[in-house]
Amino acid sequence: MPRLILLRHGQSQWNLENRFTGWVDVDLTEKGEAEADKAGMLLAEAGFHPAVMFTSVLRRAQRTGAAALEAAGLSDVPVIADWRLNERHYGGLTGLNKAETAEKHGDEQVLIWRRSYDVPPPPLAPGGEYDFTADPRYAGQPIPDTESLKTTLDRVQPYWDAEIAPRLRAGEDVLIAAHGNSLRAIVKLLFAVPDDQIVGVEIPTGNPLEIELDGDLRPTAARYLDAARAEALPALP
Ligand SMILES: O=C(O)[C@@H](CO)OP(=O)(O)O
């Protein structure tokens, strides 16, 4: 049965600065690099040798995946990058400090923007520093100006169906190095998490989440490889 490992990037500069990040291409901190190396050692201990690594077009995910593969002695694994695995687009909140935003709008509103299923943050105003419409990585793509988890899943799922699921169905093991919310979208899909319960699902940085799947790609077992930094997982479907 195929094994899937979901790996959220290690701590980024804006995780450290507590800023809404989304599609901004910030790098890893030293701590984030160490988390990526440790993730690789955990992959090696688990005897994981994926046929392919999928990642986003953002460097914090790519570097985490590459460093983990290298630490695991798996630098030969092919890598496929696609924007549809990007972090959720944070719209008009992009770049703001999360604590200051909570002081201004209240903790409850910020929790809704950060963790609800279908309430998007306000849209990004066009033309500013964080407007990615002219970025060549997204040329010709229908890129958003804000995203909820639901609309993130709306672009993750077709990519999952077309590119990732067929590899797993063929019996291959797969690594996905991506982001807190693109990975929450995949967890919601695989575990059939109800809309009102996804608010409680958090994915820690740099801690590989191993999921065993049956032939219909239903999870039969799941665990974080670093048990000391594990978060609660949804019930098996
Ligand atoms: O800022 C972001 O893009 C994400 C991930 O770090 O934050 P949040 O925890 O609010 O989903």
UniProtKB/TrEMBL annotation:
SUPFAM superfamilies: Phosphoglycerate mutase-like
MF GO annotations: phosphoglycerate mutase activity
Keyword Isomerase appears in the UniProt entry: yes
Binding site for substrate: 8-15, 21-22, 60, 87-90, 98, 114-115, 180-181
Site for Transition state stabilizer, residues: 179
Coiled coil regions in record: none
Keywords: Gluconeogenesis, Glycolysis, Isomerase
Reaction(s) catalysed (UniProt annotation): (2R)-2-phosphoglycerate = (2R)-3-phosphoglycerate
Active-site positions on this chain: 9 (tele-phosphohistidine intermediate), 87 (proton donor/acceptor)
UniProt keyword Membrane, yes or no: no
Known EC number: 5.4.2.11
Pathway participation: Carbohydrate degradation; glycolysis; pyruvate from D-glyceraldehyde 3-phosphate: step 3/5
UniProt superkingdom: Bacteria
Family: Belongs to the phosphoglycerate mutase family. BPG-dependent PGAM subfamily.
PANTHER family xref list: PHOSPHOGLYCERATE MUTASE (PTHR11931)
Record's subunit section: Homodimer.
Function summary: Catalyzes the interconversion of 2-phosphoglycerate and 3-phosphoglycerate.
Name listed for the protein in its UniProt record: 2,3-bisphosphoglycerate-dependent phosphoglycerate mutase
Taxonomic source organism: Brevundimonas balnearis
Lineage, uppermost ranks: Bacteria, Pseudomonadati, Pseudomonadota, Alphaproteobacteria, Caulobacterales
Gene: gpmA
